[in-house]
Amino acid sequence: MTFRVAVVGSGVVAEASHIPALRAAGDRVEIVAAVDSDPERLADFQQAHDIPAAYGSVQEMLAAQKPDLVHICTPPVTHVDIAVECLEAGSWVWVEKPPTLSLSEYARIEAAEREGGPYASVVFQHRFGSGARNAIDLISSGALGRPLVAICQTTWFREQAYFDVPWRGRWDTEGGGPTMGHGIHQMDLLLALLGDWTSVQATAARLDRATETEDVSMAMVRFENGALASIVNSVLSPREESYIRVDLSDATVELTHLYGYRNSDWLYTPASHVRDPERIASWTAVPENVPSSHSAQLPFLLDAMERGVRPPLSGGEGRAALELIAALYRSAFTGRVVVRGEIGPDDPFYYRMHGDALPWHS
């Protein structure tokens, strides 16, 4: 089966990540259209990738092409309206992170889905590399013992010029700072490894960058399985690193990378009482080496489309990282521990990640 695909947004993420993923999918997809509000950029993108049709608006494209799948590669503030419009037109959606600026916006996307499709799936590609899928299986099966302690850090560096792009560093267009726009990938992977969380205690600050949002946040998270995790999100860190560590009763699992990983970026250290060489060797006996990438996630979405079932990272699974981030902000800006499930339609943090409770002024 070949699915007809449209790409909305022709910037860096479309160029560097979505086009390669579509090419890697081979004859399972056909790129039939591109959409962008910038005519010059759109023309260059169309020519560079030999896309047969180009449009200045999503409405025009949907009416003319009726694509099976739409890739949304635009700034975060635009995601919800585009996603809802595509779903209502009958197109499945693959939307970049963060999927929306708030939980209320995400609820609009869920409401536009239909049983059997179309559905909207979120780009969280770090779950889909073979190294992560192996670690998730090992932890969930109990092969490494009981999860106890975890560290999740996205310590990156962004100069002030990065935030001079008009939509960056603003609550109304980006939804938040590094917690929302950078650390969301690592936090989603942490959730895949450890499962549901129960409570969050956090802090956030604007220490050095001239932005509306935070430039650093930290959180302590308790999980249903009893594990405790420390989370750090920063754009102030000259030595950049994306790092996850999970200490279990029988082993420590570590992932060190920056924007993507291979199997070799995962390290397993057995506890002193684990001495069986075959057991230890089995932890890293992964038959394939699939890097974390859009190319790794897209086949799972296409498989779901073929079967007419909900794809990975849609619905509640796609909302999970957003819920954790909302709780982190709520805790940071109110000074309270936040319990999972307490942020609902009667809470300002359901509609805005800052909840109108900022400790500083823009």
Topology:
Blueprint (H helix, E strand, L loop, with lengths): L2 E6 L3 H13 L4 E7 L3 H10 L5 E2 L2 H8 L3 E4 L6 H10 L3 E4 L7 H10 L7 E3 L7 H12 L5 E11 L13 H4 L3 H4 L2 H11 L2 E9 L10 E8 L4 E7 L1 E13 L2 E7 L8 E5 L6 H6 L11 H14 L7 H20 L3 E2 L23
Parallel strand pairs: 1-2, 1-4, 2-3, 4-5, 5-6, 7-10
Antiparallel strand pairs: 7-11, 8-9, 8-14, 9-10, 11-12, 12-13
Helix pairs in contact: 1-11, 4-5, 6-9, 9-12
Question: How many E-type strands?
Answer: 14
Low-confidence stretches: none
Helix share bin: 25-40%
Query: Major β-sheet, in short?
Result: 8 strands, mixed
Q: Given this structure, which CATH class of the largest domain is correct? A: Alpha Beta
Estimate nothing, just give the exact number of structural domains.
Answer: 2
Q: Assign an overall shape.
A: globular
**Class by SSE composition:** alpha/beta
Q: Which fold name corresponds to the CATH topology of the largest domain?
A: Dihydrodipicolinate Reductase, domain 2
